[in-house]
Amino acid sequence: MTKILILGGGGMIGQKLAQRILGQDIFANAEVTLFDRTFSSNDLAVKTKTGDICDPNTAKELASARPDVIFHLAAIVSGQAEAEFDLGWDVNMMAMWHLLGALRTEHDKSGGTYRPRMVFTSSIAVFGGPFPDKISDVFLSAPQTSYGAQKAACELLVTDFSRKGFIDGISLRLPTICVRPGKANAAASSFFSGIIREPLNGKDAILPVADTVRHWHASPRAAAKFLTHAAKLDTEQLEGRRALNLPGLSCTVAEQIEALRTVAGQDAVNRIKHVPDETIIRIVDGWPRNFAPERAIELGFKAEQTFDEIIKVYIEDDLHP
Amino acid sequence: MTKILILGGGGMIGQKLAQRILGQDIFANAEVTLFDRTFSSNDLAVKTKTGDICDPNTAKELASARPDVIFHLAAIVSGQAEAEFDLGWDVNMMAMWHLLGALRTEHDKSGGTYRPRMVFTSSIAVFGGPFPDKISDVFLSAPQTSYGAQKAACELLVTDFSRKGFIDGISLRLPTICVRPGKANAAASSFFSGIIREPLNGKDAILPVADTVRHWHASPRAAAKFLTHAAKLDTEQLEGRRALNLPGLSCTVAEQIEALRTVAGQDAVNRIKHVPDETIIRIVDGWPRNFAPERAIELGFKAEQTFDEIIKVYIEDDLHP
């Protein structure tokens, strides 16, 4: 049996990941537990647990079950972490600190045999401009948001606890996930999904930035695959550098729109209304646009090659599943 | 009056820094307080305080005095942080967390007017190999020791608390400080100073590595100047990247020995005994050797240009002061 714990299991990626684990033969006799603050919906045949991940006792309880694989996706999103400074640091960094401490206690109790794989979802928000045209695998992490700083701090913790042998962790710097199913949210990046999702659902969408804006994308399906691939990876190959820039697709908004035209026609494209928003323009201007993620590609991580593919994944997995 | 607090004020650099502040007209009416666990000696005419920097109440008390400038030099050294994992994270990271929280409370209480300058001594230990020939200002921080991870995590905290306006901080990645006065210590880097200091004091010295080993040095005098320069810097110039690689001198052990010969003659060089130590060889092999610290040089930070100069600084400041 492989005991799998997904922290943030109620979120979109957590649910996609659990589906993938249940539907494929990736882990021997997977027993999946989802943990989250609340579950708005969960139709999956798995255990769920709710609680406050910032509470050290929660960390102890989760660790005491000795999961073999822990996917740590729980986070306060970027915008909220910026608005609520304490909450961001508590959830996005201190919760990791407590969890790692609790896992180390289990490691010690087991006489050193318990050493769980942890797959942590970091983010390209660990990078801050000015950027080169393509961000290489050795470019500095100089975040310009609290969210990015919290993710970068967790990467350091995951790496050091792994180097000491208490856990066997890996941090994945996910591209922006697109097309997100469901409703638009308050994230500044929401429109990257919205301009595709809304027209495909017969609704109007707002484009708040120029169509020359370039960004770095991967689908929710690719994200779930990144996570399971990381869970099975021989981490010796990482040679101590346990935070990875993942592959993605770099494209402009104009290229996104062109792909929408190809897949769904001009009527869909006509649903997109350009309404400039100076706040979003300024935020997006500080984001990475392109990467050369050579290490992750060598390690077998794969993302979509065209935005047409990303749209087709949305249609297959979420619009007409 | 400028209220100056030096955390780790009992250490070698803390004492050099306090001397420099007292001896020069750098800060208007400087009122210096040194804080440390203990003071083995302190002949300076300044206030001293002792306490446990890991205690959140200590952080609150130190912050409540509202120092204008805080030099944060307090740390568990590299070797001890590796051997005592909890102690290292507590002193080198969690103490910073408590201190920043306490300073932010004072910032809030003051209605946002209190915003102290913090100069934090980070380290080139934030870097881990493989390295390029020269480490640039945009090379990734991938530490391979707990000490390096703790310093890198503090850099993220200092930057984010500064970005939010709670403090006005800067992190200085110091080169290895050479020639350290006093006795040899247990640090793996101790010999870089020992092979110069001991012969100049008429004693034998052990060289545990090959003389082809290259490393990155600056004198204690240069370190004290880095710190006061950082305290006076217009931090707007940092453009949000508040961790700096400092200038130093890259030279081989053979070049160090050649400088010793020039300054003190062949008799001094004859005091150096080559006794290979596999443990030290392996540790030192993982250390950075050379940098291209362009930003710091542009910002006016200066180090020695030759190892002869570094030896002369030791003779002037410590051997025959």
Polypeptide structure, described:
The first copy, chain A, is an alpha/beta fold and 321 residues long. Chain A folds into 2 domains: 2-174 and 219-245, NAD(P)-binding Rossmann-like Domain (Rossmann fold, 3-Layer(aba) Sandwich), CATH 3.40.50.720; 190-216 and 248-288 and 304-319, UDP-galactose 4-epimerase, domain 1. In chain A, 43% of the residues lie in helices and 17% in strands. Chain A has 12 helices and 12 strands. Chain A has helices at 12-23, 56-64, 78-83, 85-109, 146-163, 190-200, 220-232, 253-264, 266-270, 278-285, 294-298, 307-319; strands at residues 2-7, 30-36, 47-50, 69-72, 117-123, 168-174, 176-177, 205-207, 214-218, 243-245, 249-252, 272-274. In chain A, strands 3-2-1-4-5-6-10 form a 7-stranded parallel β-sheet, sandwiched between helices. In chain A, β1 (2-7), α1 and β2 (30-36) form a beta-alpha-beta unit. Chain A is globular, with a radius of gyration of 19 Å. The mean pLDDT of chain A is 96. The interface between A and B is medium-sized, with 24 and 24 residues.
Oligomeric form: homodimer
Radius of gyration of chain A: 19 Å
Give the integer mean of the pLDDT values of chain A. Answer: 96
Helix content of chain A: 40-55%
Count the strands of chain A?
Answer: 12
β-strand amount of chain A? 15-25%
> Low-confidence stretches of chain A at least 5 residues in length (pLDDT < 50)?
none
The greatest interface here is: A-B, 24 and 24 residues
Main beta sheet of chain A: 7 strands, parallel
Shape of chain A: globular
CATH topology of the largest domain in chain A, anyone?
Rossmann fold
Query: What structural class results from the helix and strand content of chain A?
Result: alpha/beta
